Amino acid sequence: MSLTDILSPSDIAAALRDCQAPDSFSPKKFFQISGMSKKSSSQLKEIFRILDNDQSGFIEEDELKYFLQRFECGARVLTASETKTFLATADHDGDGKIGAEEFQEMVQS
């Protein structure tokens, strides 16, 4: 399964266009524009599984840096400050990585 099986390609493209400039990425805005915030819990779990590149059950900081590229190969890499802010937004237990439940809470909040 791919992200375009769950999210509309045009919504993904619009979300990526919105954060093309360095330091313009807002997770909440990206989730809204891409349509992720409207998805069911099971769909968000599938999206999480796709984004968890190494299938560790967590999205770590090094995976977050390439978050936008998981949606489109040519997308930019998140800046260090965007990556740290993104991680801090979701990492409720302070373990330095985002679990499936933390991801779902962040997307749906």
From TrEMBL:
PROSITE patterns: EF_HAND_1 (PS00018), EF_HAND_2 (PS50222)
SUPFAM superfamilies, A to Z: EF-hand (SSF47473)
Coiled coil regions, renumbered to chain: none
Record-annotated EF-hand domain positions: 39-74, 78-109
Pfam families from the UniProt entry: EF-hand_7
UniProt binding sites for Ca(2+) 1: 52, 54, 56, 58, 63
Residues holding Ca(2+) 2: 91, 93, 95, 97, 102
Record keywords: Calcium, Metal-binding, Repeat
InterPro entries: EF-hand-dom_pair, EF_Hand_1_Ca_BS, EF_hand_dom, Parvalbumin
GO CC annotations, alphabetized: cytoplasm
GO-annotated molecular function: calcium ion binding
Task performed by this protein: In muscle, parvalbumin is thought to be involved in relaxation after contraction. It binds two calcium ions.
Family: Belongs to the parvalbumin family.
Identification of the protein by name: Parvalbumin
